[in-house]
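Quick one: co-fold with zinc ion.
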Amino acid sequence: MKLYNTLTRKKEEFQTLDGSDTVRMYSCGPTVYNYAHIGNLRTYVFMDLLRRALKYQGFNVKGVMNITDVGHLTDDGDDGEDKMEKTAREQKKDPYEIAKYYTEVFMKDFERLNIGVPEIVCKATDYISEMITYVEGLIGNGYGYETSDGIYYDISKFKDYGQLSGNTLEDLKAGARIEVNDGKRNPYDFAIWKKAPKEHIMQWPSPWGQGYPGWHIECSTMSRIHLGDQFDIHTGGVDHIPIHHENEIAQSEGLTGKNPAKFWIHGDFMLVDGGKMSKSLGNTYTIDQLIEKGYSPMVFRFFCLNAHYRKKLNFTFETMDAAKVSYERLCASLLKHKNSTAKTSEEVLSSYKKSFSDAVFDDLNVPQALGVLFTMLKEPASKDIYDLALDFDRVFGLDFDKVKEDVSSDIPSQIIEMAEKMQSARAEKNWAVADALRAEIASLGYNVKNTKDGYEIIKK
Ligand code: AMP
Ligand code: ZN
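Sure, here it is.
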């Protein structure tokens, strides 16, 4: 299996560091101060595809994902306020309560999107003493030093800083702002521990007084505890390359003398209408909002699968509509094969299996693998094809085994959309709206029958 390594800027043959069949993989998890938006979730769909592809090749995966519930400042560098504390203040709630709530919603999104939960999910606030030990180690090795507001990492001590992004120390020096923060040796040094002002709710005793950990030290500490000084794969979104992951490498090199991961793999961003997602533009959609608009979580997952993880993916409602139609067609063809008793020759099957594996094992070319599936489904109806599609679904994770008759493409998407809206109205006991939609659907030639599991659309 070949994977693109951001560190070497090459596709490399993947092997585990210790030659075993267990892949040790760390994924930067969410900062739980808000709902995850579809961009965040794209990154976790990518993490999931990678985990599934590794398993498809026969590896076991020991995955670790952190939950950042303290220390991530509003600016990825050292500026701004702790995101958790900011939300707590705005919502007049306890930051632990905020963290608990958004973590639960995040895990529900994982479930709805069929994202396998990594074997170990660990939250930063459970590892404070280990983080303090890490910081002490960095001070002991001459990389950490104290200032009036925290403990900083002296980047000038780490000559190889910038391997991942290509932002060398020279570049940092040239671009550095004149800092007001007194006591820092270099303007670009970053905090590994922050001293807490009195009003900071989340704070712990440390050899440097009350404080809280820096965001980067959290990942370095938790990955090391669960996966060791060096592990196989580290993932995250591309935004983590220039700061967060450079700093993780610097910390590990400072403490253990080693780069923590052999493969650094990054998923590219999701855009909305060709631009950045931002709260001020009102385009940071959540899965719940997509469901309200009539797109199931599986349609969103399918939408993500249509772009290679190293390419930007532009979200628009037009492209989502196209994904929905395409997904429904896919489901209809699956059913055609499922309901058949015919066979397909071994030769034909193994040739599809090979094309599929070649695509997946070539740096996770899932769009190409979907192409193989679509071509395969055009074969004459056969139960063997259905079974092979289920095998491919171990990587796609699109719940092929749960596809039911009622998503058949014979029903126009406009009718399905109206029926979905009708269901939402019924759920809200908005009977007038539900009845009006039922009548409208009937006038277009379809009946909606309520069933135990939801509903069924029947052509009149
Ligand atoms: P955060 O909760 O801000 O730490 O982000 C969680 C994950 O989402 C990180 O791995 C980010 O790299 C990723 N991420 C943030 N915005 C986007 C986006 N627009 N598209 C894809 N991934 C994103
Ligand atoms: Zn991280």
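If it helps, The radius of gyration is 25 Å.
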